[in-house]
Amino acid sequence: MLRYIIKRILYLLFVFLIMSVLLFVIYNAVPGDPARIRAEKFKQKDPVQYQIAYEQARADLGLDKPLPLRYFSWMRQMLKGDFGYSTYYSRDVRELVVTPMKNTVMLNIGAMFLALLITIPLGISCSTRRGGVYDNLVRIFTVVGYSIPQFIIGLVFIFFFAVRLRIFPISGFGTPNFEGSFWEEVLDKLRYMALPLLVMTFSSLGGMTKYVRSAMIDALSMDFVRTARAKGLKEQVVVYVHAFRSALLPVITLIIGWFFSIFGGSLIIENMFALNGMGKVYINCLQNQDYQVVLALQMFYIIIGLAGNLVIDLSYMLADPRVRLG
Amino acid sequence: MKLLRTLFSGRKDTDVLAEEAMKGQLRTVLGRLLSKPVNVLAILVFLLFLIGVTVGPYFYPLEINYQDMTQQNIAPGRTMLAIPKELQGHIADISVGSSYSMGLSDAGEVYLWGKTQVTRNVDLAKTVPENMGKIRMIAAGFDHAVAVNEAGEIFCWGNNRLKQCDVPRKADGSDFVYLAAGYQFTVAVTSEGDVVSWGNTNMVDMSLRKAKGPVSKIVFTLDSAIALLQDGSLVYLGKADNALSRGVPEGSFTDLAATGHTACAIAADGSTTVWGEKEYGLDRVPEMEGRPVSVEAGRYHYTLLTDAGRVYSWGRNNYGQASAPSGAEGAASVRAGYFQNYAIGADGRAAAWGLKGYLLGSDGYGRDVFARLLNGGRMTMTIGCVSVIISSLIGILIGGVSGYFGGRVDMLLMRFEEIVASLPFLPFAMILSAIVGNRVSETSRILMIMVILGVLSWTGICRLVRAQVLAEREKEYVLAALAMGVRQWGIIVRHIIPNVLSVVIVDMTLSFAACMLTESGLSYLGFGVAEPRPTWGNMLSGCNDSIIIQYYWWRWVFPAIALGLNTIAINVIGDGMRDAIDPKTEER
Fold it and tell me: Which chain B residue shows the shortest CA-CA distance from A169?
């Protein structure tokens, strides 16, 4: 067990190193010179001064050194916790991501909670009524749910909830210059978050329901379920106690995997509703060629992703001892 | 209930004792796939889309850079040439506006047809002034309509944002002989040759003083106007210095018409002259029978009537506006404007040709949504298809090698696979397309998007193939083949690949849908295929606006339906195939 974990962590480090080199090289291949941007303000004044400023900026940014050396100094800074400076936002990356990260995590947890609340009962009820009208209806809905892209769901929801019914505002993250008590502010924020939350929840329903349903069907076809029924247990006890506990394992691993993705903002949703989240920061920086931020974020997501994979594998192992470790 | 069950399970009550005939594997799979109506439906829907996007673009070719500001946001429908029945037989005059036409009956009543909703709030047909009396003259403009009654009273209604409806009241009561409404601008000419004008003077500076002498007719181009004086000479009234202003011919003329950038005049000797920016073959005047009597112009075409009663149209023919029908022969007069033509006969009936309307509406640049949907669908499907082929090839190769050889090769390849799989997909694809995309041409950019999608999405199929190969490798028949001395490649090609193929086909189908969705997502965010080249994703990307969502619904509803329905169909087919190949999964 311990050996396996150590081995996996070593792999993880290896993959991470390769990824960091790969990304670093890719970002440095980007056309455009950040030092030139920094020295831009001197350009009109005086060519000599401009040249000096340009050299200074190059030295400041470390662009005068060869690529491998730059990589090591960048890596050292990253490990020290200095993720660079955003030229677009004129702030340190660390300080920059605090608010968006908070918003994104809040939104993701909300959507996850809602989705679980809906999909688990839905999946269970489908599995017990397999092949019936209800099950088939839900299956239609799940296929539709995972086939339709998020932005179409978003457009339809905006049309109904924001344009037609006018229940929720179309975009934003709270009324600008809102004044009121703490709770009023919370309510206001909730109103703004409702629509993106609904869209995110809705778009994850299809896949989740399908997953829960098939996990439950697997569990219900086990021998112990037959035994439980043969013992004369109530059907509800069989489904909710015996079968569900067994079906919970794959669902839990899914949730754990999901938990690691809550830091990543949904690019499409945040762009659509103009939310100040990680996805929006990401797109803004990409569009404005602020690659230091993009690079730092990307590395962060890769670490999270790799760690997530590891935790999922480990949780599988803990949940089901039969899972063979390779 | 029963319907639903047959829709999904397709099972019939079979006789247990009935014997089952032996069938080939492919036929069994196909039979099982087609036994469910929902699968058949999905296949039909998909085929419909496939045929639509492969054949459709030949019938509705796309001029990539085409835009037309007069055709923005027109609602779906093909009623632009639908002359009201009660008007047919009594037509005195017709005037063509941007997306509608206006007719005058011999009883002096005004009729409007086509898309009369010229702005979000103004519907010309609903705002016709009451008690106008007997109308004598009409003119349809871009977003306003004008009528003059027998008493010389002017009525003007429609969009008044740029004062195109603010009629100078002192003009009322004059004896008007000519009336024309252009882009937010109106002129009326009296019998003495005096000009009254009102409206948006930004586009056309009516320095009418340039027109020395009494005027008989004024025509509008996109950004200027030309006057025909009563003495038969022509005067350019615009501000710009271009081919149109420089080319004004000298001499005596009887009639005049102007398209967006050119003008055509009929000389007193019966010859026709076209000058201005020559586009769409507007200067190629056809051979004519008889002497030209009058000429009319649309945005990009001319329609001409000769004294032999023959009608000729030439110029741009994308909506059939330059193909005069045989029914137009023997017309007493012709009327043209924008993309429509009417040939009015002596009996008060009119034959119409040209743009009937937009089946699915037009977008914010005046482009036909239907044509863009077909062409965009072809792009989306091509990108999906090519990237799936790329990803499958890579996935099968790496997964197969990894699974078959195992050991160290497997370890290395799987780590590589892990690296690629841990790349956050959408962001990474965006970065690649942002970095590489700006430096290359549009075509290679699209090619690059396909490659990026393919190169980043092979990991799923790779794992599947690897697992399948691992399982197959251990089977007895492979051992037997090995023992018989079959070479390794022989085993792979003959024994393992056919067994892996079914998994691959199912996965390819499902990832075809996934790739289409990813491409749409990328284009939606603006990192995929760029405007003006359409895809289903970027057609939706400009629609994230409450005004468009509410008022111009056709701009997002139709692409959304196309994309959604198509991916649903593909996913259903993929799931159906998986069930058909391996009936055990159906239980899940």
Answer: B546
Angle between helices A182-220 and A98-128 (to 10 degrees): 40
Q: How many CB pairs under 8 A join A and B?
A: 130
Query: Do strands B215-220 and B225-229 pair parallel, antiparallel, or not at all (unpaired)?
Result: antiparallel
Residue of A nearest to B513 (CA): A147
Structural domain total, chain B = 2
pTM of the complete model: 0.85
Is A29–B435 a contact, with Cβ atoms under 8 angstroms apart?
Answer: yes
For each of chain B's 588 residues, which pLDDT tens digit applies? Answer: 555 555 555 455 555 555 555 556 778 888 888 888 888 999 999 999 999 999 999 988 888 888 888 888 899 989 899 999 999 889 999 999 989 999 999 899 999 999 988 888 888 888 888 888 899 999 998 889 999 988 888 899 988 887 788 888 777 778 888 998 888 888 888 888 888 888 876 655 555 656 677 888 888 888 788 889 888 888 888 777 788 888 888 889 999 999 988 999 999 888 899 998 888 888 888 888 888 999 999 989 999 999 888 899 999 888 888 888 887 788 889 999 889 999 998 888 898 999 998 999 998 888 999 999 999 999 999 999 999 999 999 998 899 888 888 888 888 888 888 778 877 677 777 777 766 666 677 788 888 888 888 888 898 899 888 888 888 888 888 888 888 888 888 887 777 877 788 788 888 998 999 889 888 888 888 888 888 889 998 898 878 777 888 889 999 999 999 999 999 999 999 988 888 887 665 554
Say if B225 falls within a structural domain. Answer: no
CA distance A212 to B70: 53
Nearest CA in chain A to B415: A15
Question: CB of B427 within 8 Å of any CB in chain A?
Answer: yes
Is residue A114 less than 8 Å (CB to CB) from chain B?
Answer: no
Helices and strands, counts by H and E, chain B = 15, 21
CA distances from B146 to A48, A309, B143, B333, B494 (A): 66, 71, 10, 20, 79
The domain of B500 spans: 25-62+368-582
Q: What residues does each domain of chain A span? A: 25-82, 98-319
**What are the backbone dihedrals phi and psi of residue B531, each rounded to the nearest 5 degrees, phi first?**
-55, 150
Look up the CATH superfamily of A98-319. Answer: MetI-like (1.10.3720.10)
ipTM of the complex: 0.82
The beta-carbon neighbor of A298 closest among B424, B567, B568 is: B424
B256 interface with A at CB cutoff 8 Å: no
Interface of B with A in 524-563 (CB under 8 A): 524-525, 540, 543-544, 546, 549-550, 553, 556, 560, 563
Question: Within an 8 Å CB–CB cutoff, is residue B571 touching chain A?
Answer: yes
Asked if A9 has any chain B CB less than 8 Å from its own CB, the reply is no
Tell me the C-alpha distance between A272 and A173, whole Å: 12
**Cα A34 to chain center, whole Å?**
29
Nearest to B435 by CA among A25, A30, A88: A30
- Shared domain check, B573 and B432: yes
Q: What are the CA-CA distances from residue B256 to residues B192, B252, B297 (Å)?
A: 19, 11, 9
Together in a domain, B37 and B102: no
Boundary of a domain, candidates B169, B204, B239: B204
Of B427, B435, B553, the CB nearest to A298: B427
Is residue B473, in this structure, part of any structural domain at all?
A: yes
Alpha carbons A110 and A113: distance in angstroms, whole number = 5
Q: Do A147 and B567 touch (CB under 8 A)?
A: yes
Let me know if residue B226 belongs to a domain: no
Residues B58 and B98 in one domain: no
Residue B241 lies in a domain: no
Is residue B168 helix, strand or coil? coil
Instruction: State whether A163 and B549 contact (CB < 8 Å).
Output: yes
Chain B CA closest to residue A211: B588
Task: Give A-chain residues touching B563 at CB under 8 angstroms.
Answer: 149, 152
